[in-house]
Write a structure and sequence with these properties.
By secondary structure, this protein is α+β, with helices and mostly antiparallel strands. The strands form three sheets. It has a six-stranded mixed beta sheet with strand order 3-4-7-6-8-11. The radius of gyration is 17 Å and the shape is globular. It binds zinc ion.
Length: about 240
């Protein structure tokens, strides 16, 4: 259910794995994505199970419509009847409001400044990392009073740089924007390391307290991987402040 969990000065970070839910194959078991073809009732139940296991009210969790872009939304309550915006990062200054990000190979990024009481969740696949969605989220946090030196950053399970094969020209394009993302597969072909790129971006912004999940989704049978399985579920990362 909850594969990794961490708390720093009242800031909580959690990432799910694929087990402990009610979805049938190929979404078994804990699919948290509502737009991947799974039974909506199963997804609703899974979101309740995951939230309850973290001590959260499922109705309070703020999700987003992720579109691989650089846009950020500031939120201070659940969307309710309002349309869910097409963004890849959400930021809040509301303590206790949980933010969630969905992934299956892309890098889930959770950020919090426990002193200022500002949290953010971001979805950084290759296009989002190149477009700068994570720096955009940090800047939005700073506008609300966060300081990079106080921000705690956790990145979750994602496809690793030894597995994420891309065409040579794509690696060159990505590396031109973010050299740290330049990688090579374990079989010696061009690759991209999105998580390394995200951490380099955070480091340049002055975010020093950073940790990276050791899990590669493509290599782990306990996690959903889009590149491995195509039709599959989505993992979630959650961040909230006391
Ligand atoms: Zn890997």
């Amino acid at each position: 259910m909850i594969g990794q969990r961490d708390t720093v000065s009242g800031a909580h970070f959690a990432f799910t794995d694929r087990w402990g839910g009610v979805s049938a194959a190929p979404y078994e078991e804990l699919n948290l994505g509502g737009a991947v073809g799974d039974d909506p009732d199963a997804v609703r139940t899974n979101r309740e199970l995951a939230a309850r296991s973290l001590g959260l009210d499922p109705a309070r969790v703020v999700w987003m419509n992720q579109v691989h872009g650089p846009d950020v939304a500031v939120v201070d309550e659940p969307w309710g009847a309002k349309p869910v915006p097409d963004v890849d990062a959400i930021v809040t200054a509301r303590r206790g409001l949980p933010l969630a990000v969905l992934t299956a190979d892309c890098t889930p990024v959770l950020l919090a400044d426990p002193v200022a009481g500002i949290a953010a969740a971001a979805h950084a696949g290759r296009p989002g990392m190149v477009a700068g969605v994570v720096p955009a989220a940090v800047r939005a946090m700073m506008e609300l009073g966060a300081e990079p030196s106080r921000i705690v950053a956790r990145t979750g399970p994602a496809v690793c740089g030894r597995c994420y094969e891309v065409p040579e020209v794509m690696r060159a394009d990505v590396s031109a924007v973010e050299p740290a993302a330049h990688a090579e597969t374990s079989w010696g072909t061009p690759a991209v390391d999105v998580t390394a790129g995200v951490h380099a971006q955070l480091e340049r912004l002055g975010v020093r307290d950073r940790e990276q999940s050791p899990v590669c989704t493509l290599e782990s049978g306990d996690h959903f991987s889009y590149r491995r399985d195509r039709t599959t579920g989505r993992l979630a990362g959650y961040v909230w402040l006391d």
